[in-house]
Design a protein that fits this description.
By secondary structure, this protein is α+β, with helices and mostly antiparallel strands. The chain is about 45% helix and about 20% strand. The protein is built from two helices and three strands. It is globular. The N and C termini lie far apart (about 40 Å).
Length: about 90
């Protein structure tokens, strides 16, 4: 079954826009990198998000939750530059 990447991209960008003010308040941001063939969303963490210890929580409880509400066919959201957890 083919996925509609353009439709998913639009909805993901809307979810990012809803989360962006909260990220910006803490000096961070995220950008969409790609939608994979299995509908996995890949983002890049920017600013303070790129080295924040709370990035995983922001990604999973924030962005992934928003995206999966808007686009149920998205199985997960991944960051290409997730900071290492000590």
């Amino acid at each position: 079954m083919a996925i509609d990447k353009k439709n998913i991209e639009e909805k993901v960008l809307q979810a990012l826009d809803q989360l962006r003010p909260f990220l910006n308040d803490d000096g961070g941001d995220m950008e969409l990198v790609e939608i994979k063939d299995d509908a996995t969303v890949v983002v890049r963490l920017l600013g303070a998000c790129s080295d924040c210890s709370m990035s995983m929580m922001t990604l999973k409880a924030g962005l992934e939750e928003q995206v999966r509400k808007a686009v149920p066919e998205v199985p997960r959201v991944e960051a290409i530059n997730m900071p290492e957890v000590a």
